[in-house]
């Protein structure tokens, strides 16, 4: 199979789909790997390293997309890439289709096979999403601390405080991978941390792990309201696999937060769980709404591309190899986890949450033509 690794063109996205070791794994099995020149530069990976792993370097994205049967990338295709996608081509990337009608329609129109990292599911876990959730969870505190600085419109609160001055209050909504990693980083800085979730097992684990050093609350509208009002930094980390994130913090509650408080909504890729959040970029990451500083970057792990790229390939390589070795249909027939990653096949939506979000018919991928 011909596998293409393009240079990401989403603003300030410096990750790349595969590192040279991944290329070597594919070429070692007899596959052709095309790498667009400069694709790995943002992650500190040179063209020479890719060539040494057996890649064929190509000059343009147009050539890569035209030749590749499987395009392995990081972020969803954006408008400039839509015309490059062709019928029957496999696009393997983070897609986040539920809140993105335009991309969904483009993938349907192009007739491709779109496999979303974030919906590959095994034993109730999302293994291709987890490493980036870990990165984003940890970054949420780092970025939230910046948002609290007065120069960004924040309260001027140091999360860890200093002797004689209390630390900042961090409230984390969601105790999944994002929430656990945000909690770890916030505690490491010395903040006071409250975590809310509806999963008592997750809350129990956090309580046991941190020996009472954090406050855990069962998530209801009442407990969310009380916690958000006292937060200096609010982190949104709620995920419903493949679906649009539920709005748990309405605008009216944001308006009751402390002036200059900060919000980092990691769920922004799926529409966000805080009503006042909107997508931003690394070039212009923050804005103020209702007197609160908001950070809504949709590709947070792109801020630390070296770490993120290697972590992402660790999670996605096994399925890239399966897709290349067997073709998408056989690979999905043999691996139900990978089959859950199928979102669009041959002009039809085959993932329930995406069909529901856009009120589109839901088809079975097994019924699609060869």
What would you note in describing this structure?
By secondary structure, the protein is an alpha/beta fold. The chain has helices spanning 20-27, 47-52, 61-67, 101-110, 130-147, 177-189, 200-209, 221-230, 251-254, 305-326, 328-334, 336-339, 352-358, and strands spanning 2-5, 32-36, 56-58, 70-72, 90-93, 113-116, 169-173, 192-197, 215-218, 233-236, 262-265, 286-289, 292-295, 342-345, 348-349. It folds into 2 domains: 2-126 and 304-367, Rossmann fold (3-Layer(aba) Sandwich), CATH 3.40.50; 130-298, 3-Layer(aba) Sandwich (Rossmann fold). It contains 13 helices and 15 strands. Helix 10 (305-326) packs across helix 11 (328-334). The longest helix is centred in the C-terminal third of the chain and has 22 residues, at 305-326.
* Arrangement of strands in the largest sheet: 3-2-1-4-5-6-14-15
Contiguous helical run count: 13
Second rung of CATH, namely the architecture of the largest domain? 3-Layer(aba) Sandwich
SSE run: EHEHEHEEHEHEHEHEHEHEEEHHHEEH
Percent of residues in beta strands: 15-25%
Query: Which outline best applies?
Result: globular
Domain tally: 2
Structural class: alpha/beta
State the helicity in percent bands: 25-40%
End-to-end span in angstroms? Answer: 17 Å
Spans of at least 5 consecutive residues whose pLDDT stays below 50 are none
CATH superfamily of the largest domain: NAD(P)-binding Rossmann-like Domain
Question: Which fold name is given in CATH as the topology of the largest domain?
Answer: Rossmann fold
For the secondary structure, the number of strands is 15
């Amino acid at each position: 199979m011909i596998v293409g690794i393009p240079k990401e063109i989403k603003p300030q996205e410096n990750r790349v789909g595969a590192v040279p070791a991944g290329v070597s794994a594919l070429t070692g099995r007899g596959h052709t790997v095309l790498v667009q020149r400069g694709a790995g530069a943002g992650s500190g990976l040179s063209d020479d390293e890719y060539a040494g792993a057996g890649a064929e370097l190509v000059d343009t994205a147009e050539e890569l997309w035209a030749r590749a049967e499987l395009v392995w990338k990081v972020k969803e295709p954006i408008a400039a890439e839509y015309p490059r996608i062709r019928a029957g081509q496999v696009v393997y990337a983070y897609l986040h289709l539920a809140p993105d009608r335009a991309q969904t329609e483009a993938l349907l129109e192009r007739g491709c096979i779109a496999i979303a990292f974030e919906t590959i599911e095994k034993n109730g876990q999302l293994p291709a999403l987890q490493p980036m959730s870990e990165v984003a969870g940890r970054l949420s505190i780092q970025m939230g601390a910046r948002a609290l600085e007065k120069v960004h419109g924040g309260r001027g609160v140091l999360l860890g405080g200093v002797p004689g001055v209390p630390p900042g209050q961090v409230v984390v909504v969601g105790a999944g991978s994002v929430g656990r990693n945000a909690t770890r980083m916030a505690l490491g800085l010395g903040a006071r941390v409250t975590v809310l979730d509806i999963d008592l097992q997750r809350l129990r684990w956090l309580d046991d792990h941190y020996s009472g050093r954090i406050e855990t609350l069962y998530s209801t509208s009442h407990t969310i309201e009380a916690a958000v009002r006292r937060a200096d930094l609010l982190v949104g980390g709620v995920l419903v696999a493949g679906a649009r994130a539920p709005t748990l913090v309405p605008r009216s509650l944001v308006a009751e937060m402390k002036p200059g408080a900060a919000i980092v909504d990691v769920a922004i890729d799926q529409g966000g769980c805080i009503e006042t959040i909107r997508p931003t970029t690394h070039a212009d990451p923050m804005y103020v709404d209702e007197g609160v500083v908001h950070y809504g970057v949709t590709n947070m792990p792109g801020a630390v591309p070296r770490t993120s790229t290697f972590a992402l390939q660790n999670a996605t390589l096994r399925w890239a190899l399966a897709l290349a070795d067997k073709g998408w249909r056989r690979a999905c027939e043999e691996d139900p986890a990978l089959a859950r990653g199928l979102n669009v096949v041959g002009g039809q939506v085959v993932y329930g949450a995406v069909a529901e979000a856009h009120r589109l018919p839901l088809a079975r991928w097994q019924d699609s033509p060869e």
